[in-house]
Every structure is written in C-alpha cells, then in structure tokens.
Design a protein that fits this description.
By secondary structure, the protein is an alpha/beta fold. It has three domains: 127 residues, Rossmann fold, CATH 3.40.50; 60 residues, Helix Hairpins (Orthogonal Bundle); 164 residues, 2-Layer Sandwich (Heat Shock Protein 90). The strands form three sheets. Strands 2-1-3-4-5 form a five-stranded parallel beta sheet, sandwiched between helices. A five-stranded mixed beta sheet has the order 7-9-10-12-11. It has a two-stranded antiparallel sheet with strand order 6-8. Helix 2 packs parallel to helix 3, helix 5 packs antiparallel against helix 7 and helix 8 crosses helix 10. The model has no long low-confidence stretch (mean pLDDT 83).
C-alpha cells in the first residue's frame, strides 16, 4: 500500500517545495492551504501515513489544527511533523508536543533532512501495516483452529453418544426378547385357549347346538380371532422396531395432514361407540417426523382414548408449538385413571392391560411403542388424568420454524 502524506501550509510555494523534495520517494500527496481544509480532507480520505503541518497559519494555526485532528479517535494514529520558521524554543516545542506533534522541521527546510525524517515514519507505517495484516492472518488461523477444535469435540461427543446408544440398544434388544416371550406366553395363550374351546364345541357335536348357540360361538371365534390378529401385529411391529433402530427417517410434514391420515383407520371404531373424533390441529403447523412412527403414535393413543371412553363421548387432538418443539395433545372424556396406573403406563415392566368400557382388551405393548417412538424423535410424553373425568396425553416432536421452513434451533 503506498504511503499517503497530507501537506498543510498556507503558502503554495512551501507546498510545492515539499512535494518536489519528496516526489522521488513514490509517496502520494494531498495538499491543504489551511487547517480547516486539512480537516475536510481527513474526513473524506483514509489511510494517511503522515501529516506535515505548518505552525503559523491564519485563522487556525498548526497547534489548534493538531488538537482538532486528534480529537477524533480514527486520526490519533497519524503522526504529525510541525513545519516552523521559528527557532526551536523550548516553550514552542513543548506546546507542539502537547498538541500531538512527533517532530519539528525548521523552514527553510533541508531537503535531505525532510526526506530522512519522512522516510522514518513511512517505514514505521509500512511496518505497522505489515504487522496488522499478519495479526489479521493469525486471528483468522486461530479462528479456524478454534472451529476445528469445536468440530473435533463435537465428533468425539457424537461418537461417544453413538456408542452409548448402541449399548442401550443391546440392552433394549434383550428386554425385547423377554417381553416377546412374555406376551406370547400370557397375552396370546389365553385367547387361543378360548378360541380352541369355542371351535371345539362346534366341531364335536354341532347338531346338538341351537342356532343361537352356534351364532354365539361363531361370534366368540370371530371376535377372538380379530383380537389375536391385532395383538400379533402389535407384537411383530414392536419387536421389529426393537431390532431396527436405524429405520428412523424424519421428514418435514404438515402435522394436520399426518394426524388426519392416522385417524382415517380409527373412525369406524369411534362410530361403533358413537364417539366424536376431532382433529383440531392448526393447518400452519409443520413438524420434522418419521411419518410411520407418527402414525403409530397417534393410532395407539387415539385407540386407547376410544377404548376407555364410554358411548357418546369425545376424543380430540390439538397442538401448539413451544420454542423448538411442537406439543400434541390427545384428550378424551373417558373414565380416567389412577396415579398408580399412570406411573406404570409407559414402563417396560410386565403389566396387564385394563379392559375398555366395552370390555375391549389389549396387550399393553402399544404404549411402550408410543414411548419408544416419541423418545426416538427427541421428544417427551406425559399424562394428566382424573378418574371419571378423562385423560390428556401430551407428547412433543421437533417443530419446523414457519419463517425459515427449517427445523427450529435448539437452545
């Protein structure tokens, strides 16, 4: 970068003399015939390396001009050499240094002395510029190193979490095996026994049975078969989920549409009990969710809500976004549950599912699936319930920022 020098003198001849003396050094010059003009130039031009300032000027002398220049922080780094026709009296020199001068040159000046003094400050300016560039480069390198270190720490943390998750998955698979055997031995064996007993009566002596008895036994067989199929599908889905954690595939989706798709398969169940099923999700809410898991979550929760809601009741789904998560509420006007039931609702301990208001049965695995799927989304699930008043289950899934259309940033 070239060295820029501001020459300030009310005498044009003096300005020309200084330019002639210094022009061979390759400097760039700006000239001012007064202190005010010098201030205007400094306000409009940058990167001056040195100011050669005449002391005795009309209206505003060099001392006053120097004081005004140094009142602005952006000019305090520019050295000023006073050019004076007076002798180097101590009082005058003190006043000049007090105003901010770094040196004096007496007029008429010696060109060699002028070039020598200016060269010193030009070299200092160039050295400072070089140091500043090196400092900027060092800061950039340091910033890169800090960023790389953060990324490395993040990778180490991520890898540690992955290993911890793998360990948890191995433990979960072992629990899955135990649970699978427990379900097969308890939940499926009893319905099979009833099915075999009913079909046995039909096959042993069908002629001795009345039409009503045949109809009753066939209804038991049909109802039990459906129950077995539903429970078997539930067990298979749960066991498959336990062994295929990597199938998690979240995508942007409109929550109201996903909820409506889930409810389509449950409307017939609700109609059988004359239960009003409401999807009150605002149309502008979007989430980042695995569509299959979300459908399983909603169907399990709504199925349970229908199961424990008497004839003529209601089940509604609402949602609201809170910071980076969307909260979904499944609320019913059912029979509610005690605190003891709530505490065991999502646990992996062996528990017997309660009968519904129409004596509906279940395996108890559905809510374990719900808890696993919500957790895999990074969300939480909790229950509020009052016996005889109904139940509200709240779960959270990642939200989409409506302004950026990207997943909402975590705090």
């Amino acid at each position: 970068m070239p060295v820029k020098i501001l020459l300030v003198d009310d005498n044009d001849n003096n300005l020309l003399s200084m330019e002639v003396a210094l022009e061979q050094e390759g400097y760039c010059f700006s000239t001012a015939a007064s202190g005010r003009e010098a201030l205007r130039i400094l306000l409009h031009e940058d990167d001056f390396s040195l100011i050669l300032l005449d002391v005795k000027m009309p209206i505003m002398d060099g001392y006053e001009t120097a004081e005004l220049i140094y009142q602005r922080d952006k000019f305090k780094h520019i050295p000023i050499i006073f050019i004076t026709a007076h002798d180097y009296e101590e009082a005058a020199m003190f006043k000049g240094y007090q105003a901010g001068a770094v040196d004096f040159i007496r007029k008429p000046f010696n060109p060699e002395i002028l070039r020598s003094k200016v060269a010193v400050f030009a070299q200092l300016y160039q050295a400072n510029q070089l140091l500043r560039k090196q400092e900027e480069r060092l800061q950039a390198v340091n910033a890169d190193l800090v960023q790389l270190n953060r990324e490395l720490e993040q990778r180490v943390l991520q890898r540690t979490l992955e290993l911890e998750n793998l360990n948890h998955e191995l433990q979960a698979l072992n629990l899955s095996k135990d649970k699978f055997l427990s379900v097969m031995s308890h939940d499926l064996r009893n319905p099979l026994t009833a099915l075999l007993a009913s079909s046995g009566k039909l096959s042993e002596d069908p002629e001795s049975l009345s039409v009503n008895q045949v109809k009753q036994l066939s209804q038991i067989i049909h109802r039990t078969s459906n129950k077995l199929l539903n429970q078997l599908n539930e067990v298979i889905e749960w066991a498959k989920k336990q062994s295929q954690k990597t199938s998690f595939n979240p995508k942007k989706m409109r929550l109201a549409d996903g909820i409506e798709e889930s409810l389509e398969l449950l409307k017939a169940n609700a109609q059988q009990k004359n239960i009003k099923l409401q999807n009150n999700i605002p149309s502008n809410i979007e989430v980042m969710a695995d569509s299959l898991m979300l459908r399983s979550i909603v169907q399990n929760l709504v199925t349970n809500a229908i199961k424990y809601t008497p004839q003529g009741g209601s089940v509604s789904i609402t949602a609201q976004t809170e910071q980076q998560m969307t909260c979904v509420f499944v609320e019913d006007s059912g029979i509610g549950m005690t605190n003891e039931v709530k505490e065991q609702l999502f646990s992996n301990t062996d528990q017997k599912s309660r009968s519904g208001t129409n004596n509906e049965q279940g395996s108890g695995l559905g809510l374990q699936l719900v808890n696993d799927f919500v957790t895999q989304h990074g969300g939480k699930i909790n229950v509020e319930s009052t016996v005889g008043m109904g139940t509200t289950i709240r779960f959270t899934i990642p939200a989409i920022d409506p302004k950026t259309r990207d997943p909402a940033p975590k705090n």
